[in-house]
Amino acid sequence: MIEVNFPELDTLLCSPTKEEMDSAIKIVSTHSSPFEELSLRTMAAMTKIRTTLSRAKVTKSNKRGVLEGATALLALLYEQANEIGTLNAKVALMEAKSSEVEDLREQCSLLKVEKARLQEENASLVQAASRQNSSPPAQAQTTKGTFADQVKKWSLPKKQKPKFVSLNYPKDGETSEEVTAQLYTSIAPSKFNINVKNVKKLQNGGVAVECSTEDQLRKIMSEINTNKDLQDKLVAKRPVLKLPKVIIYDVDVNFPREHLLQTISQQNEVDVNQMKILFQIKSRTKDRCHWVLETEPEALRQLLKVRKIALEWSRLTVREFRRPTKCYKCCRYGHISTNCKEEETCPRCGENGHKRADCDKEVNCINCADLNKKFQLSLDVKHDSTDPNCEAHIRKMKQLRNRTKYV
Fold first, then answer.
1. CA 255 to chain centre
2. Contacting residues for 300 by C-beta, under 8 A, at least 6 apart
3. What's the burial of 371, exposed, middle or buried (CB within 10 Å: 0-12/13-18/19+)?
4. Which fold, 164-237?
5. What tens digit of pLDDT does each residue of 62-109 get?
6. CA distance 349 to 361
7. Planar angle of CA 24, 27, 49, nearest 5 degrees
8. What is the strand order of the sheet 308-311 is part of?
9. Which residues in 180-224 belong to E strands, given as ranges?
């Protein structure tokens, strides 16, 4: 704010002193504020006016009139400058408040994501407890805990016990039932000292056989791939575990992609060779984006342990990224819409020919309905296909977790 008191007109009518004239051309600071610069320039202009009037051959009355007009004009200029300064301060305050509101909105969005994820994991726990015929008190104890406890529990994957599984697929398009029959009639597990823990149907006619040890797994795979009755019909192979992924929220969109991994590594003590950039996701916040990285298990545990990583001057939230591939055209899993050959399906009722906004039919999950039909199950279908508590979605998330390399 500018506060300038002009001398009396009689004082201004006098010729300016040498000090006043020197100050009129002296630069006080190369980084002066706009108000300071305005004050210096106007006072310098007034000094020049006084100098000119002192040398001019005009009456004292005319000089007084010129100075009165000049001081009135400068007073008005200062008043306008003060108003502009006040408005600028208000705008800056509003921008700061707006930024705070955006931050709160983004935090709410992240909390909603975490809530949905926790609901999904809790639902999975309930399903597992139900299958094991757990008592109600034990089940309640399993799912009990604060929000922070649940986030911590599910953010850092526990080390998995190794599974010894052979994936057996037909070469000529047989069904899972036919493949199972071929295995049962051609191989006697007792002959090879193999303890079969589980046999499960797979897509594309496959059958998964789980053994108890690595040695048993090698034996059964060797027998399937070399048995004269099976080697031309089936192929046995190990499951290929995928590396885990993480998502880093709200990175500045202008942050150079080529510097991202190196900066994360240097500031967070994570091996740069254990991370790989996959893709970018748009953020709801302007000028921000989310980056998805593929990591080695060790790097994953290091990043999830801190939960917030340093990136230059920012601290950014990091979470494990687990999202099953899903088509938002037909609402089914396993492919994306650009590769979909099906008709567009309503995610609410599972029927074709209309969108969710126009749907007035009874809610019906197309994915749970498909599972019921294919595997003779009785899953609840009275929910939207985008419901995080959907049994089909929970199974896909569990499947994705089991196919991820955490050790």
1. 16
2. 157, 244, 246, 320, 406
3. middle
4. Alpha-Beta Plaits (3.30.70)
5. 878 887 887 788 777 777 777 777 777 777 667 656 555 655 665 665
6. 6
7. 15
8. 275-282, 288-295, 245-252, 314-320, 308-311
9. 196-201, 207-211
Are 164-237 and 245-320 in the same CATH fold? Answer: yes
CB 249 within 8 A of CB 290: yes
| Sequence-ordered list of residues with C-beta below 8 angstroms from that of 126, at least 6 positions apart, any chain | 139, 143
Reply yes or no on whether the pLDDT at 380 is more than 50.
yes
Q: What DSSP element (H or E) covers 293? A: strand 288-295
Q: Which of 178-182, 330-334, 402-406 has the lowest mean pLDDT?
A: 402-406
- The DSSP 8-state label assigned to residue 334 in this structure reads S
Nearest CA to 59 out of 96, 119, 13, 122 is that of: 13
Phi and psi at 135, nearest 5°, equal: -75, 155
**Pairwise CA distance, residues 114 & 149, whole Å:** 12
Tokens describing residue 262: 């190196």
Q: What is the DSSP letter of 182?
A: H
Of residues 204 and 246, more confidence is placed in: 246
Q: Are 232 and 171 in contact (CB under 8 A)?
A: yes
* Strands ordered across the beta sheet of 234-237: 196-201, 207-211, 164-170, 234-237
pTM of the model: 0.53
> In this model, does residue 363 exceed pLDDT 60?
yes
Is 202 a residue whose pLDDT tops 70? yes
Longest CA span, the chain? 128
Domain boundaries, the chain: 34-83, 164-237, 245-320, 337-403
CATH topology of domain 245-320: Alpha-Beta Plaits (3.30.70)
Q: Please, are residues 40 and 6 in contact by the beta-carbon 8 Å criterion?
A: no
Amino acid (1-letter code) at residue 352: N
